[in-house]
Amino acid sequence: MLKNRFIRQLFSSCLDLLPILAVVLVFQVAVIRQPIPDVAHLLEGMVLVVFGLALFVQGLEQSLFPLGESMAYAFARKGSVFWLLVFAFCLGFGTTVAEPALIAISDEAARIAAQGHIIADSDAARKSYALGLRLTVALSVGVAILVGVLRILRGWPLHYLIIGGYCVVTAVTPFAPADIIGIAYDSGGVTTSTITVPLVAALGVGLATAIKGRNPMIDGFGLIAFASLTPMIFVMAYGMLR
Amino acid sequence: MSAWLWHFADMLLATGRDILPIAAIIIGFQLLVIRKPLANPRKIAIGFFYVVLGIACFLEGLDMALFPLGKLMATQLTSPEFLGIAATGPRTWLTYSWVYVFAACIGFATTLAEPSLLAVAMKAEQISGGAIRAWGLRIAVSIGVAVGIALGTFRIVTGTELYFYIVVGYVVVIIQTMFAPKMIIALAYDSGGVTTSTVTVPLVTALGLGLATTVPGRNPLVDGFGLIAFASLFPIIAVLAYAQLAQTLGKPHPKP
Asked: What are the transmembrane regions (chain B) (predicted)?
């Protein structure tokens, strides 16, 4: 049974990868018209991508989704708002500080900043800049999930909060140094990645399902939206204060 | 072979370390605050192991196959030889047309293959009772990312203000929000963050920084970042439009 499901998962992963392969192939053959170097290495990588994708989805359905949901149910039933909010903050902070994409991008940002003489071009300066960026973003996501959970509990309409957030972003940007704006705007999208999204979405949907009078369709989603909004504000503040 | 195995073990360890805080938080809360044992610890442990192994393989595969290829192409598409112009000759934004086409295609393809988006789309279909189709949602988001990244590369090539584009985008989102069906709004806002995950982010960032480096007169520090911001904003617009369209065309759609 498990074996069959995994094979089906593998097949669907192949289908997922197909569009990427098609784009790259069409461009290489029709536009760039140069032979692709090192095809064997490439194919090896493709096999790993397909295999990894299948394993990831399989593992997700077995651990992270049901765990996040059962935990949200448990916290909603327990009725302790304090612990729920602590959990929300930890979840946001923990998933973000571990995010591989964020690690990669903050290192890249530190490298570019050192090249542009914004910070000293030394290993220590780059490391502290990158770590500061990561912790700022993780903190902002923790706050975002906390506010998002509070929103689900109180039933505040999402779009007022989001539009308010947009207004803050718009108002803060003119005061932020030019070199941080691009990174700040990007960090909104970087935060919510492989691990964060499924877990946070499960928390929101599970929570909205467990609370009476909430429609999971309307109230359950929206946590990730906060997690993409607050990092922009926090990182711009980091750029101004640093 | 053994060097490769060591490298892979390293990779597995790094992924495991990345997963550790979140595993610790979940298990810690379960045991200390809820004070209930895990319902099915064996299955969950195996699931976590699958996730770690899956991400490690996935990232390794991207590093080996897709990144080098993407980088190679980004360089090739902006080289004067490919464009057929002199190295210092005059160029307009139209000179780089292939860059926009490539950016759009890459945005579309990577988003369609995105595991996080797949997970959330399945969840959305399940919760809406089939009113929102997982495939429809994925395609709407992918088109949004394609348009977003293409416009983002256009911004890098022309060197215009990021701020201006994003504020205009916000205004469009706010206007759409006022007319869109209520049940899709939160999902649409979420889809912006969902698209830009571990697959898309490094690839797209490398593209932006590469462009800002190769296009004359651009500074990677000021112009290089910002593509992800586009890739997070445009899916919101696309999903809201998809919902609006589905409603207008009178598709089965539960009225509250």
From this structure: 12-34, 46-67, 98-122, 134-156, 162-180, 192-212, 224-245
Residue closest to B233 by CA, chosen among A127, A225, A119, A115: A225
| Cα–Cα distance, A225 to B192 (Å, whole number) | 7
Residue A156 in 3-state DSSP? coil
Is A4 in CB contact (< 8 Å) with chain B?
Answer: no
Global model pTM greater than 0.80: no
Which ranges of chain B have pLDDT less than 70? Answer: 1, 18, 66-71, 73-74, 85-91, 115-116, 127-129, 131, 196-200, 249-256
Tell me what the mean pLDDT of segment A108-121 comes to: 80
> For the segment A163-195, what is each residue's pLDDT rounded down to a tens digit?
899 899 999 998 988 888 888 988 888 876 666
* Nearest alpha-carbon partner for B136 in B62, B256, B223, B239: B239
A197 lies within 8 A of chain B by CB: yes
- Cβ contacts below 8 Å, chain A against chain B, sum to 334
The structural domains of chain B, with segments of one domain joined by +, span 1-64, 78-250
Domain ranges across chain A: 1-62, 80-241
Chain A residues whose CB is inside 8 A of the B57 CB are 48-49, 51-52, 55
Distances (CA, A) of A154 to A204, A224, A227, B172, B251: 13, 18, 18, 28, 32
Tokens of A198: 């499924």
Summarize the confidence of residues A19-42 as an average pLDDT.
76
Pick the closest to residue A101 from A205, A228, A13, A203 (CA basis): A228
- The type of residue at B189 is Y
Q: With CB atoms and an 8 Å threshold, state whether B183 touches A215.
A: yes
CA nearest A236: which of B166, B203, B82?
Answer: B166
The alpha-carbon gap from B105 to the nearest alpha carbon of chain A, in Å, equals: 6
Residue A207's contacts (CB-CB under 8 Å, 6 or more residues apart) are: A72, A75, A76, A149, A152, A153, A220
- Please count the other Cβ atoms lying within 10 Å of the Cβ belonging to residue B13: 12
Helix axes A178-191, A223-241, angle to 10 degrees: 150
| 3-class DSSP string for chain B | CHHHHHHHHHHHHHHHHHHHHHHHHHHHHHHHHCCCCCCCHHHHHHHHHHHHHHHHHHHHHHHHHHHHHHHHHHHHHHCHHHHCCCCCCCCCHHHHHHHHHHHHHHHHHHHHCCHHHHHHHHHHHHHCCCCCCHHHHHHHHHHHHHHHHHHHHHHHHHCCCHHHHHHHHHHHHHHHHHHCCHHHHHHHHHHHHHHCCCCHHHHHHHHHHHHHHHCCCCCHHHHHCCHHHHHHHHHHHHHHHHHHHHHHCCCCCCCC
Provide the pLDDT for residue A1: 46
CA distance A234 to A134: 11
